[in-house]
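Recap from last week: sequence in, structure out.
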Amino acid sequence: MSTVIIDRIKKEIESLNVTAKPEEVGVVVSVGDGVAEIEGLEKAQMMEMVLFETSGGESLETAMKRSVVLFGLVLNLEEDTVKVVVLGESSLVKEGMVVRRTGKLLSVPVGEEIVGRVVNALGEAIDGKGTITAKKNMPIERVAYGVMDRSSVNEPIHTGVKAIDSMIPIGRGQRELIIGDRGTGKTTIAIDTIINQKYEPKDKRPICIYVAIGQKRSKTASIMAKLEAAGALEYTVIVAASAAEASPMLFLAPFSGVAIGEYFMEQGKDVLVVFDDLSKHAVAYRQMSLLLRRPPGREAYPGDIFYLHSRLLERSAKLSKELGGGSITALPIIETQEGDVAAYIPTNVISITDGQIFLETDLFNKGIRPALNVGISVSRVGSSAQTKAMKKVSGKIRLELAQFRELEAFMQFASDLDEDTKKRIESGRRYVELLKQAQGNPMPFYKQVASIYGANNGLLAGAEANNVRLIEESFLAFLERDRPEILTTIETGRDLTEDTSGQLNVAIADFKEAHKQYYNQF
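Predicted structure tokens:
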């Protein structure tokens, strides 16, 4: 009998599956302002997630099932301790609390399920439409693709804003800064760009990611409603870190946005990421750095503030064909004070990006919207990111506006102007009116081409400046109704052939004949 028992015990010992594994644990030494100092985590890595034991010693798996986990993010590796920012309710963390390493770097859940949703900086749904069950995670921090992995930027992202698409074109894979004072329409341009992507063919339509950093929740909700009403939310992800949240969440939000973008880029898709705005991101990083006792530098910003934004924006790229040819286009937004583009953070981001769209308060107050300063605004990718059709019509417009701005300044001092100068000024005024555009009303590129071609070829000749927008609207309606094949040819061919130009010239003449009431000369 005893041998039977002994044999059974031996079998059980042999089949025993020991799941115990060594764990590295530490203890909270001090905590305050959302930052915990921890002893004992000697092998902790930068940007690693640690788990605070708020749940009485149960395993990580059990705690996660019960949703009672409280994570921290390792950001300072010091001689005897590590400093961790608490990702959640920091009042739950007490001195003497046990902290465990997870061995995982901070990552965000990604997948097709996330499109059309509003998530926080950790990728958790906050739109009340249920949890997101993504099967893959992407690391929040990651080294950008190298030069050999990239290809040149040669395809446009159409913003739907005539002034930008014609003079400051943005390419897929480019980083174009939108900069200006508060209330000059920076967010409007970004949202119009997202809405305008619905005019792109479905296979070419980019996934859009709007990152709201330190915005009021009401503003984020109104942007979501606007995108939903325009039918743009179905291809958009909103990553929101509101002004009410702790600085670590604001710091993480843009990195989460670009990590989500990288998932789609690696599948060969195009992605558009809007960072609204990086001024608040820099302030949140400064706040967090000061709490972590990092030495302050210029304007109390930490010394690595340039590196913070460069490693974020460098992740936008146009990948080579071997890697699928996907792209991330970044539209960072920076708020200036009194138009000071030479301040610390604006100059940093200007030097990282491939051009800037500068919006001026004076132009905005004059009613010129978008309030684009053509002199300072530039795209370093240039016409290589334009369609052939747009390239052919947009050359004249920048020159006309530059001459007009020069003559406008001169005109203030000269009372007697010759006939040629008067004509140039009048032509400039008509172009200024042509480039005005209502908020939330992006225009597909083929209509822009027809409109600008008309302006270059006599459509506006003899018209008062205040009639220009009415003429443009009527002319485009006339083309859609009576000559739709012209717009279809431009849209599909993306070029302006001699045949199409001839048809447009005939259409302009017919339109002017039928609408004499708009012109002075008749």
